[in-house]
Amino acid sequence: MHFSSRLLEQAVDEFGRLPGIGKKTALRLVLHLLKQSNSDVSRFTHSIDQLKEQIRYCATCFNISDQEVCEICTSVKRDHETICVVEDTRDVMAIENTNQYQGVYHVLGGLISPMDGVGPSDLKIDALMERLKNGEVREIILALSATMEGDTTIFYLYRKLKDFDVQVSTIARGIAFGGELEYVDEITLGRSIATRVPYERNIG
Ligand SMILES: [Zn+2]
C-alpha cells in the first residue's frame, strides 16, 4: 500500500493492529474518521484514553469494573454461594444476557495453554481458591470453552477444587459452537447453565 502521507500511514498501521482489522478496513476507518468533526474525533480518542487509564478489575471476581468491587459482587440480590468460573469478561456478558443465572462470577483472565506459554500462575486461580476458604461457597460452575485449553483448565481446576467442600459442575459441553461461549445464542446458553451437571459424571 502506497501512502501519500506518513500520518495517514501511521494511523492505518495502528488500526491494522486491532484483531480482525486488515489494511483495507483500517484505511476505510481512518478515512471515515478524517471526515468527522473535531469534537467527534476528540470524543472517540478521549474514550480510549479513559478506558485504559481508569478501568479497573473487580478485586473479588476480576471482571472489568468502574469500581473497586463490581456491581454483581456487591449485589445482595445475587446468590453468593454459587460461583460461575469463566475465561473473560465477554463470557460474563453472554451469561448475564441469558437472565438465567443469579450467582456470582470469577474471571480467570484466560485459559491454561502450554503452547502459548500460559500456565496456572498466569490466571486468577489462586484468587479463586482464596474465595473458597471462608466456606460460604457451595457450588462452582465451570463455564469454559469446549476447546483443548478449556478442557485442560477444567481438569486442573477440578483437581484443585477437590480440597474444598464444594459441588463442581460444568455446563453442557456440546453447546459451544466453535468453542466460544460468546457465540452461543442466549436460549441455548441459558438452558445449558440451568441443566448443568456434576463434573464427575462427565469424566466417569
Ligand atoms: Zn466482582
UniProtKB/TrEMBL annotation:
Gene Ontology BP terms: DNA recombination; DNA repair
Keywords of the record: DNA damage, DNA recombination, DNA repair, Metal-binding, Zinc, Zinc-finger
Pfam families membership: RecR_C, RecR_HhH, RecR_ZnF, Toprim_4
ZnF locations on chain (C4-type): 58-73
One function term, GO molecular function aspect: DNA binding
CDD domains recorded: TOPRIM_recR
Transmembrane annotation, as ranges: none
HAMAP family: RecR
UniProt function note: May play a role in DNA repair. It seems to be involved in an RecBC-independent recombinational process of DNA repair. It may act with RecF and RecO.
Name the UniProt record assigns to this protein: Recombination protein RecR
Name of encoding gene: recR
